[in-house]
Specification:
single chain, 432 residues, alpha+beta, Chloramphenicol Acetyltransferase, 6-stranded mixed β-sheet, 5-stranded mixed β-sheet
Length: 432
């Protein structure tokens, strides 16, 4: 492995953006949860965490104090961790897990001392659960699952091979991305003069003024339930279903719903190490729909597929510019949250959907798999974020919402609409 202790590395563009969005009241944390069929031994797990942290530099990084006129924030890589990231608790039955999960994911993960993550083990009668919460300023969802794989492999005494790359040197890969024009086929109805020029619809709130924090619902589907028709992908089905869910929910609440825009992160790692390295190497793209497209679920799926296919073939478009490393003084960067909040209602997307795809070697901690769930963080006015991951023949879906905007009952209704929308967009003639 490359020697990294003591190295100082600048934030890349995504690090800086997520730091600007992060707030103790609105933490930008990535949620991962694994269900196991075994009873984990706390001491052995802490040793496995220490082993994994030693293998990944960004797992033992902390943010260095910056001076007002520094041109970038920076990370310092420590020899180990300063704070013990592992917590444990015991529950008597499964119903106690939900509130613990929501409290854990709603907690802020500070960056002033390593590590930039926290891990919670819930000992339960029907199998333990391992929860990971990562500050998104440190690394993305691909990095989070990779860290959990290292912890799982160390716990089970398995080999944990790493790619032959410097994990800190590759942090600048997004600076090499160059925007490409969106193909005319995907652009023709989305010019600045058309519907896409209007501000995105907002998912109708049902609990304005409620306390902050996140609510979370986990779904466990057979992957066949989201199998797409020819030419589309599971991701296309999920994105289209989210568009349809927003339309149906807003209609039920008497709220407007014109242009729906779903933010979809795209992994920019090279194919040779596509599932490796703890780093922020994702770019955001927007998948847009109009009311006319949403009137026909299969037509909606086609419209979504056209846009996602354009991303795969022609790149991520102009959004890559936002992820490049900036040389703006730190003093001005600290004003970023104010600037974001000022334009959020006009510019922010309607919702977020992030799909990790198929996890080839799930972190089952030496036992049989009990499910894997993942979600990105929503941030008001985006009040709903959905994450997905496939393991074997299971599709784990996590709906994460802002409790200040949606009640638990409303979130469950949205969850039901999402499941029904999955069935609608993938099966001609279906009705729910």
């Amino acid at each position: 492995m490359v020697e990294t202790a003591g190295r100082i590395v600048p934030f890349n563009g995504v690090d800086s953006l997520m730091l600007g969005l992060d707030d103790p009241q609105r933490p930008q944390t990535i949620e991962l949860e694994v269900g196991t069929t075994v009873r984990l031994v706390d001491r052995r797990l802490r040793k496995a965490v220490a082993t994994a942290v030693g293998r990944h530099p960004m797992a033992r990084a902390h943010q260095r104090p910056a001076k007002p006129f520094d041109l970038n924030d920076s990370w310092e890589i420590d020899d180990g961790v300063v704070a013990d990231p592992v917590e444990t608790c015991v529950v008597g039955n499964r119903t106690e897990v939900g509130p613990i999960r929501e409290a854990f994911s709603s907690g802020h993960v500070a960056l002033d001392a390593a590590p930039p993550f926290r891990l919670l083990v819930i000992h339960a009668p029907d199998g333990d659960r391992v929860l990971l919460s990562v500050n998104h300023a440190a690394f993305d969802g691909i990095g989070a699952i990779r860290l959990l794989q290292s912890i799982s492999r160390a716990y089970a005494g398995q080999d944990d091979p790493l790619p032959d790359v410097d994990p800190l040197a590759v942090r600048g890969l997004l600076d090499e991305d160059r925007p490409r024009a969106v193909p005319s086929a995907a652009r023709e109805t989305r010019t600045p003069r058309g519907p896409a020029a209007r501000r995105p619809a907002r998912l109708a709130a049902s609990a304005p003024g409620a306390p902050p924090g996140f609510g979370i619902v986990h779904l466990d589907l057979d992957v066949a339930e989201a199998t797409p028709p020819a030419g589309a992908t599971v991701n296309d089905v999920l994105v289209a279903a989210l568009h349809l869910t927003v339309e149906q929910w807003n209609r039920s609440q008497g709220a407007a719903c014109d242009r729906v825009s779903v933010m979809m992160p795209v992994n920019r790692r090279p194919e040779a190490w596509r599932s490796e390295v703890l780093v922020n190497l994702v770019l955001a793209v927007q998948v847009v729909s109009t009311p006319a497209e949403r009137a026909d679920p299969q037509g909606l799926l086609e419209a979504v597929t056209l846009q996602t296919r354009a991303v795969k073939v022609d790149g991520v478009g102009a959004s890559s510019g936002m992820a490049r490393t900036s040389r703006t003084p730190v003093l001005l960067r600290r004003l970023l949250p104010l600037a974001i909040d000022a334009v959020a209602d006009r510019m922010a997307d309607t919702a977020v959907l992030s799909n990790l795809g198929r996890v080839v070697d799930p972190p089952w901690f030496g036992g049989d798999g009990g499910g894997l769930w993942f979600s990105p963080p929503p941030r008001h006015p985006v009040i709903l974020a959905i994450g997905a991951a496939t393991t074997d023949d299971r599709l784990g879906i996590s709906l994460r919402w802002c409790r200040s905007a949606l009640t638990p009952d409303a979130a469950r209704e949205i969850c039901d609409l999402f499941l029904a929308s999955i069935r609608s967009v993938r099966a001609p003639g279906s009705s729910d």
